[in-house]
Amino acid sequence: MPEKKWENVVRAGLFLVIISFIGWAYVAGSFRFIADNPDELIYLLGQHLKLVGLSSFLAVLVAVPLGIFITRPRFKKFDWIVINFANVGQTVPSLAVLALVMSYLGLGYKTAVFALWFYSLLPILRNTIAGIESVNPSVIDAGKGMGMKPSQILWKLELPNASYAILAGIRTSTVINIGTAALAFLIGGGGLGDFIFTGISLYDTGIMLAGAVPVTMLAITIDFLLGKLEKRIIPKGLHWESD
Amino acid sequence: MIQFNNVTKVYQSGDKEVKAVNRVNLSVEKGEICVLIGPSGCGKTTLLRMVNRMIEATEGLIEVNGENIQSLDSIQLRRSIGYVIQQTGLFPNMTIEQNVSVVPRLLGWDRVKIQHRYNELMDMMGLDPDEYRNRYPWELSGGQQQRIGVARALAADPPVMLMDEPFGALDPVIREHLQNEFLRIQKTVKKTILFVSHDIDEAIRLGDAIAIFNAGELMQYGTPNEILSNPRNEFVSQFVGSDRTLKRLNLLTVDDLLQRVAAVRQKKQKSYKEACGGSTVRRDSDLRNALSVLLSSPTGAAAVVDEEGNAFGNITIADFERLVEVHPAQLKSIVQ
């Protein structure tokens, strides 16, 4: 299969980029900096994970039910309002969202979580709606015609068949969130952004990359783990889509 | 078994009212296949979907098994009626066994009974139960998928089945194969079936009765033979086609013709095969095929043989005169 071959080429290319990124960090002295301050890295990494974990978790908790709610037959007429809102919301730069939220809630950890939560909502919401709406209407029609209740149609047909899109939305949103969370430092939220912005203000590439490299590795690891989770959760009958 | 009394469905389109189904009266006997047919938008699917209340009738009364469907809970009603649609509507997230067992599980059957029923249905469909048990719909061909769709609808053994163009998306060879299998299965299960189709040949082949619709109104309702021999109006005769007399020949066998001829022709011949120049037709073949044999026979006659190949009678083109309104000359010109 030529597609498979190209996929491997692209993968090898990306791998090289990451390796050279790490190599650059090594040359710039990031690892020496990390070796000198291991406790600080671990502290900031923990803070970063907490920011991302909490905001992404809350985003899933709100966006998925909201997506389900808006696709119920009764509210379907209004789904375009939500979709448009989500689309426009996504175009606002993440930094601007942080700044806007800060001007209302002030500085601090809670503000950061709120801003990251808000920014994570939209990809999940959009994918949940798109996923449910892309379930073949004949599947729903057959379920209804065979005497399934609306709740059975939702749990046995709509959600399993939309799971690929919903989980893809959660995965994308979380990975983006890991990057965006580096900005939380700017509004006093902590996280690995601390190293990055310190490095920038000191013109010290080593310190900057001591923050950037862990963020990158974190994003890659989480993406990989969520990918594994996807494979477990998505029903086998739909796997041909992802294989 | 299924009774429509003055059933009307009105859709509001802007400030105009559109009557998708207009005062339809129809009654389908127990164990019969009634084919609803007509051009697209004639209301046939709407009428079908009103039976399991996927669409609610605006006016009129629908009775299934003597009960007004409005008096029944719609969920319970749907579980008691088999439902097959054109795009199969198989659930991609479920295995074949899970798909077939959906309604029994909704009805709360126990595991053993469900598994037993699954095996039974797959055998009936001519598919190996174990081979397909853990496979998924996307792994199956269109014809296999539609068979699973029919098995799924039969799962809880409902007395009534609704089938909305179940074979419409299949290629002609597979379609004919499935139609024949469907008739074979119907012989044993004897369901009361409402069957939507847009293909008059399918309707003639499958239907015990045919209801022809146009613009929401029932144009004619009768057996295939009645409709082909006596179309009630211009629309029906156009819809069944100018070759309706030929189509009618599909419904009759050589035996039927012999019985009609026997009344006027008593003389016995010793050797039918020689007299007919070697052309033979089987007694159970349909008259359309028989006619084709006659037209290519040098003597214009053919010997009728039974299942063992023994000749016991003969037919000629002229015998077709016995079939009302079909003149031999007319037949010849149509076939050529």
UniProtKB/TrEMBL annotation, chain A:
Q: Per its record, how is this protein called by name?
A: Osmoprotectant transport system permease protein
Intracellular or extracellular location(s)? Cell membrane; Membrane
**Similarity comment: family membership:** Belongs to the binding-protein-dependent transport system permease family.
> What keywords does the record list, in alphabetical order?
Membrane, Transmembrane, Transmembrane helix, Transport
> Which Gene3D superfamilies does the protein's record reference?
MetI-like
One of the protein's GO biological processes: glycine betaine transport
The protein's matches in InterPro entries, at most eight in alphabetical order, are given as:
ABC_transp_perm/SBD, MetI-like, MetI-like_sf
Q: How does it sit in the membrane?
A: Multi-pass membrane protein
* Organism superkingdom: Bacteria
Where in this chain does the record put each ABC transmembrane type-1 domain?
45-226
TrEMBL record, chain B:
Entry keyword Nucleotide-binding: yes
Q: Which residues form the ABC transporter domain?
A: 2-240
Q: What is its EC number?
A: 7.6.2.9
Q: Keyword annotations for this protein?
A: ATP-binding, Nucleotide-binding, Transport
Recorded hits in Pfam families, A to Z, give: ABC_tran (PF00005)
Give the reaction(s) catalysed.
a quaternary ammonium(out) + ATP + H2O = a quaternary ammonium(in) + ADP + phosphate + H(+)
Q: Give the top-level enzyme category.
A: translocase
- Molecular function, one GO term: ABC-type quaternary ammonium compound transporting activity
Keyword Manganese attached: no
Tell me how this protein assembles: The complex is composed of two ATP-binding proteins (OpuCA), two transmembrane proteins (OpuCB and OpuCD) and a solute-binding protein (OpuCC).
Tell me which family the UniProt entry assigns to this protein.
Answer: Belongs to the ABC transporter superfamily.
Question: Protein name, please?
Answer: Carnitine transport ATP-binding protein OpuCA
Q: Which organism was this protein described from?
A: Melghirimyces profundicolus
